[in-house]
Amino acid sequence: MLKAWKKRDPPPQRVKPIPIAVIRYICQIAQALPPESTLLQAAADMIIIAFFYLLRPGEYTDSPSDTTPFTLGDVQLFIGPHRLNLDTASDEELLLARSASLTFTTQKNGVPNEVIKLGRSGHPFCCPTRAIVRRVLHLRSHHAPPSTPLARAYFYDGTRWITRSVTPTLITKLLRDAVTFLGTDLGFLPHEVSARSLRAGGAMALLVSNVDTDMIQLLGRWRSDEMFRYLHLTAEPITKDFARLMFSADYTITPGQLVPSY
After folding, report:
1. Whose CA is closest to 45, among 217, 206, 198?
2. Which residue among 108, 138, 164, 199 is least packed, with the fewest CB closer than 10 Å?
3. DSSP class per residue in 9-44
4. Distance (Å, rounded) from C-alpha 101 to C-alpha 116?
5. How many angstroms separate the CA atoms of 105 and 87, rounded?
6. What are the domain boundaries of the chain?
7. Contacts from 19-22 at CB under 8 Å and sequence distance 24+?
8. Nearest CA to 55 among 220, 174, 205, 173?
């Protein structure tokens, strides 16, 4: 009970939301990785998926948590309205997928069997659909069962294939390294971000794009106004025109009964 109450309290320090510039930089590095860097490739893909789907660390990493990570069996891929069979479709067909969905099974705050589907972002690499396709292709090539977390990577150690997992610690390190490289123009310091920043970053990207807050709350599976703790008014596009709008917003108040008429 005490543990549950503590989770209801606001965090002592909010993480800063990760902007898309950081995601693009990580994608740029991931594209240049050699084929054997399967764990880092998996981490980059999971960063993309977490950002666009507004996921919690326990949902997109393979580590002990009070929620469970998405697995291969939670994925659906589509070409238009046609759903692809992940067991029988060719690699070429999977690469043509135009949208991807994740099905909530035991994830925290997810309605059982609720499905969230996203299309392509328009970028050849930094795209939730393409990232999920890459995860499916990697896991399928190693005959992974449907229960395999998307955040799992197969690595050849010279004698045999072994599995390694994307963890929150690895995600946090990659994000902080990227923020360190990009510098303070981002408006925050490396220690202010963590694996939890991707969920906040995705929500902030939607807010800056003028997506209705109710829609953001639905996509992020927030069941209360807790979402607003993740959103920062310091995001420059949101507030840059406020002074101009306020200066031009002249108005009068409809008088009440106590205001005398002349």
Report:
1. 198
2. 108
3. SPPSSPPPPPPHHHHHHHHHHHHTS-TT-HHHHHHH
4. 5
5. 20
6. 14-242
7. 19/186, 19/201, 19/204, 19/205, 20/51, 20/201, 20/205, 21/182, 21/186, 22/175, 22/178, 22/179, 22/182, 22/186, 22/201
8. 220
- pLDDT digits (tens), the chain, 262 positions: 566 555 554 444 578 889 999 999 999 999 999 999 999 999 999 999 999 999 999 999 998 766 789 999 999 999 998 999 999 999 999 999 999 999 987 655 556 678 889 999 999 999 999 999 999 999 999 999 999 999 999 988 778 889 999 999 999 999 999 999 999 888 888 999 999 999 988 988 888 888 888 888 878 888 766 666 666 555 556 656 666 666 566 554 455 556 566 6
Length of the chain: 262
- Which residue type, as a one-letter code, is found at position 201? G
Does an H or E element contain 247, and which? Answer: helix 242-248
Domain spanning 14-242 has what CATH number? 1.10.443.10
Report the C-alpha gap between 63 and 55 in whole angstroms.
Answer: 14
Q: Are 177 and 170 in contact (CB under 8 A)?
A: no
pTM of the predicted protein model: 0.84
